[in-house]
Amino acid sequence: MAENKKIRFAVVGCGHIGKCHVEMIYGNAESELVALCDEKPQSELGIENYGVNFFQSIEELLFADLNLDVINICTPNGLHADQASLVLDKGIHVVIEKPIGLSTEKCQKVIDKSVANGKHVFAVMQNRYSPPSIWIKEVIEQKILGNIFMVQLNCYWNRDSRYYKVGGWKGTQELDGGTLYTQFSHFIDIMYWLFGDIENIQGRFSDFMHKDSTDFEDSGIVSFDFKLGGMGSLNYSTAIATQNLESSITIIGENGSVKIGGQYMNEVEICNIEGYKMPKLPDANPPNDYGKYKGSAANHHYIIQNVIDTLKGRTNVTTNAEEGLKVVDIIERIYQKR
């Protein structure tokens, strides 16, 4: 693709995360927002007038033949894989919000379509771009911690009636899929990215606060072994009162210990490694044009830039479809223990 060509984007799904994608595209000098798509009328979406084409179905968008380079899928989880497959069959690259599907079977279909049509799939796992994530990835790859003994992932968030609206898709088995898919798949991705696949899974699950608003559990305790060595646990809940508590990962290795915490795993709270001086990391939420987006949502501009850089031959896809499938595979195997 020509270096001076703007990458032409459309966004399907104009809810909160879709609006985030729109702003990141609109604010990038190398991209062009060409179209928006949502089943609701444009007047009900509360989106700015970007002066672009608007459609109420993905089929209408694809039929319009707008010479698009990329379509970003920001619809409910249960629609991701099928809509991505339609986009790929049209010969258009696709960005898919997490998860890329609600089953490994559907994820594999997306991969097969990508290969058959020679188009990229970008799985949105923007937590990989946070400074603590980049730093700990280097620490693990350089074996600074030595052999890994234990890993504990804690994810404690608030999701109450302000989030689960009556008649909405969130909380439904068909379109939401479960707490691990919608709330915590980013952190399972970080764990997999750092330590690889898991086995010997055991789990306990409960629904403390959401029996009337969701089709699935709101809390779980999961233990497992890493195939590469060491053991791990995942403790999660959306039954936290009032506000988010934390998303953290604690790593115990033969040479020391690390804990990365904060609401979005965005702060290095402990770094105690023998003979190692931790470098000063950049701010996890630096001031920028996207200041209203907090936590991991503040990293979406990195996703858009990775799409542009990949299509222009400067780099490779940060999180590809195979990695997106692996996260779904891990969640699927955890949920088999319910």
Give a short overview:
This protein is α/β, with parallel strands linked by helices.
Structural write-up:
It is a single chain. The chain has 338 residues and is an alpha/beta fold. It folds into 2 domains: 7-123, 3-Layer(aba) Sandwich (Rossmann fold); 127-276, Dihydrodipicolinate Reductase, domain 2 (2-Layer Sandwich). 28% of the residues lie in helices and 24% in strands. It is built from 9 helices and 13 strands. The chain has helices at residues 16-26, 58-63, 80-89, 104-117, 131-141, 179-182, 185-195, 300-311, 321-335, and strands at residues 7-12, 31-37, 53-55, 70-73, 93-96, 121-123, 148-156, 198-206, 219-226, 231-237, 246-253, 256-261, 267-273. The protein has a 7-stranded mixed beta sheet with strand order 8-9-10-7-11-12-13, covered by helices on one side. A hairpin with a 4-residue loop joins strand 9 (219-226) and strand 10. The chain is globular and about 60 Å long. The N and C termini lie far apart (47 Å).
